[in-house]
Amino acid sequence: MVTDRSIIFFDIDGTLLTEEERTLPESAKKAIFKLKELGHEVAISTGRAKFLFEDLRKELGIDTYICYNGQYVVFRGEVIFANTLNKESLNKLTTFALNKNHPVVYMNDKKMTTNVPNDHPYIEESISTLKLGVFPTHEQDFEKYNEIYQGLLFNTEGEDEIYRETFSEFDFIRWHPKSLDILPKGISKAIGIKKLLEYLDFPAERQYAFGDALNDIEMLQLVPNGVAMGNALPEVKDVAAFVTKDVSDDGILYGLQHLGLLPEE
């Protein structure tokens, strides 16, 4: 058991899971179990909805996580923070998007639905890259009667600026050429991490995070020991304290060994 326990946050897509196949490298899996064996606190920090990485949580034995890009925080199975999108603003955005033929997907804590038939090519193209095996169902007015933690807006690059100008109460973060996350203004994984750290006693020097995408930037800026994957976007590497190897090249294991959290084999 280590005397200096650390907390390590891991993004999922492009960090724990490979970019193309969305598979968990065996070296990463073994590294996670070794961290836990040594007494470290391991947490997931993802833009995914709660119900979209349940199998991964079970496989790795992780019950502390931040999801919906910071909107929902769970510590050892207990929800300690949950924030929702403003319904009135979301309804206005929905109407605006429908007039432009831009679909919207809504996610609560159990499922995701869309306001258009779910065979829309933008939805199919972007969601399929996550290799989840599930797609949103079509349910009219779902967003009006449910607590929505995150939305997805579907359009092409260059069509998103009008949304930023019109709906200043939201942040729009592109994760795919055809899709953006819809979040309350100022929310991020960093906000979720702050909420979790209020419950825990880890000094700054014992806080670590691994990520690769635009929604990881605030997280890597907040956590002193921010690690960008070798496959990360240039903007993410620019804010990281260290850049490890690609996820498919044992990047998790290499990074943890470089940081001294795991012994070199």
Automatic annotation (TrEMBL):
It comes from the Bacteria. It holds the Pfam family Hydrolase_3. CDD domains: HAD_HPP. InterPro entries: Cof, HAD-like_sf, HAD-SF_hydro_IIB, HAD_sf. Keywords: Hydrolase. One of its GO terms (molecular function) is hydrolase activity. This is Cof-type HAD-IIB family hydrolase. It comes from Oceanobacillus jeddahense.
